[in-house]
Amino acid sequence: MGFIHIDMFVSLDGVAQAPGGPEEDTEDGFAFGGWQAPLWDEVVDDQVGSGLTEMDALLLGRRTYDIFASYWPHQDGNTAQLLNRVPKYVASRQAPILGWHNSTLLGPDVVEALHELRDRHENIHVIDSIDFVQTLFAKQLFDRLTLWVYPILLGSGKKLFANGVVPTNLKLIEPVVASPKGAVMHRYLLANGTPSVGEMSSGGHED
């Protein structure tokens, strides 16, 4: 059964809206579109690129699909070639026209559709797609979460965990990577069970 990877870029206060460009998503008057660009460096570029090398399918929400479809077919380089080549699957409640090569609309039953994708592909990546990712968190329909946290506070904008999530255990599976400009990558595996609790005893820490 294939893996579903979630790849997200967020500010330190959890904003994930429009990291790529000023006009990417201006909903609710968001004024910081493209906030990721000044903090992109060689370490981030290498890590993001290497994290996608095994991808054999791309899974996106409708808004992110439209953004990607208007951009990546006109780009060159390894990442563009990969994204343009692999099958693209789109989660949408509507019936959009999917003009990007090798794109398919998921059926109305997203859970069933994702099970079918797992049988068809080894490594399915979800990039950005804030709204769709909420469904994956709620249903625990993901296997790995790669979270890039950037050293800025945006104050407003769509947040990755704005409405809370189902209590979930995660396991850090790689050493944390910090880039020269302060972006920090965490890569987690979905773990069994829900978070446990305990009491900090006086013998377990110093005052």
TrEMBL record:
Transmembrane segments: none annotated. Residues 3-173 form the Bacterial bifunctional deaminase-reductase C-terminal domain. It holds the Pfam family RibD_C. This is Dihydrofolate reductase. It comes from Paeniglutamicibacter psychrophenolicus.
